[in-house]
Write a sequence for this structure.
């Protein structure tokens, strides 16, 4: 029989809620929450991960306790990820907890970062602090699945988004596609864009639709990078994608046209040459490169050709599908995969979620086994 997941104490539930609040601002760092409680269960301080270069959850909780005038000596810190033990952009959180006199740490899961990987727990135990692990492990891992993917697999978590009719059409034969789904679905799609580190598209989408592919949510403080697969460097310098402020633009190409690369670089892009077979971009190498650039989650919004290539090469982890209650008959589908000659050649998926969004349905399905790392 499978082992039951540990029960989650109320302070850890609270810490998980705090971690959710950090999700849009903290990448590439993991979203972490921390709650410090007294022996009697009173909350002394709380906090979550801040944007890159600023304090982590534990330090924010310690600061909050100090501002409230509370001593944390002997208190318990509930934290959703192992406190870090290395000097990165900020100092080690394990040292901060030790210096504050914390008596016990309850953590959800060990940090997959090899720079930490249990050493934070070891440092706490060496200081005489009790450590318990396991509460909220599944929730923390799910919230930070891109971070775990990058640390364990060396590649981002790739989520492919598509909007279609009930019969799977993403456009009419003449290319018309705006709008198949409702405004509520489009707004929800922006929320999924916002949690990613990079939005990925192909040159076909740029040339046909001229999208901006940015996040348009009031109050958004971090724009994901834009990654563009453009094998022949056809990106127009007047395209709308240049209009989104304060984001990185990464153009992946198979072309060695130095003059064209210079034009796009002067426009603000970083051009990365990764040639693969048949004059195309090496997509697997692109994902490894994105991981090196601290990209945790890749949000794909592309046409059926690039979608098909990513799926055929086994590079997609999850599909985010919005389906409108309408039938369109002919037109392109989500991905150009076939033709298959046997049913077993299809991409096997596992349902993760199905929820109504406005008049549409949002469904998430994971490629079978992809989240087992």
């Amino acid at each position: 029989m499978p082992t039951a997941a540990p029960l989650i104490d109320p302070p850890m539930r609270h810490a998980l809620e705090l971690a959710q609040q950090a999700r849009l601002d903290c990448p590439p760092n993991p979203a972490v929450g921390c709650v410090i409680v007294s022996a009697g269960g009173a909350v002394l301080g709380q906090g979550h991960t801040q944007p890159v270069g600023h304090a982590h959850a534990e330090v924010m909780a310690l600061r909050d306790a100090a501002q409230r005038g509370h001593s944390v000596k002997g208190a318990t810190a509930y934290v959703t990820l192992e406190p870090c033990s290395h000097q990165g952009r900020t100092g080690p959180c394990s040292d901060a907890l030790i210096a504050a006199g914390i008596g016990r740490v309850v953590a959800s899961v060990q940090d997959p970062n090899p720079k930490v990987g249990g050493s934070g727990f070891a440092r706490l135990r060496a200081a005489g602090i009790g450590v318990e692990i396991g509460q909220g492990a599944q929730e923390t891992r799910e919230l930070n699945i891109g971070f775990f993917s990058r640390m364990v697999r060396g590649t981002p978590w790739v989520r492919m988004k598509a909007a279609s009719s009930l019969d799977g059409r993403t456009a009419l034969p003449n290319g018309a596609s705006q709008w198949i789904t409702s405004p509520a679905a489009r707004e929800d799609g922006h929320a999924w864009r916002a949690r990613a580190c990079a939005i990925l598209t192909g040159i076909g989408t740029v040339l046909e639709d001229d999208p901006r592919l940015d996040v348009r949510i009031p109050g958004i403080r971090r724009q994901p990078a834009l990654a563009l697969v453009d094998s022949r460097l056809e990106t127009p310098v007047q395209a709308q994608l240049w209009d989104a402020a304060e984001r990185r633009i990464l153009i992946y190409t198979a072309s060695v046209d130095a003059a064209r690369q210079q034009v796009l670089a002067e426009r603000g892009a970083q051009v990365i040459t990764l040639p693969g077979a048949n004059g195309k971009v090496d997509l697997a190498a692109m994902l490894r490169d994105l991981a090196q650039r601290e990209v945790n989650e890749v949000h794909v919004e592309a046409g059926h050709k690039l979608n098909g290539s990513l799926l055929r090469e086994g590079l997609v982890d999850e599909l985010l599908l919005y389906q409108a209650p309408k039938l369109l008959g002919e037109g392109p589908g989500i991905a150009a995969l076939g033709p298959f000659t046997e049913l077993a050649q299809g991409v096997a998926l596992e349902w993760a979620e199905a929820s109504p969004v406005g008049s549409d349905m949002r469904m998430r399905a994971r490629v079978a086994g992809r989240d087992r790392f």
In short: The mean pLDDT is 93. The first strand starts at residue 33 and ends at 37. Residues 10-22 form the longest helix (13 residues).
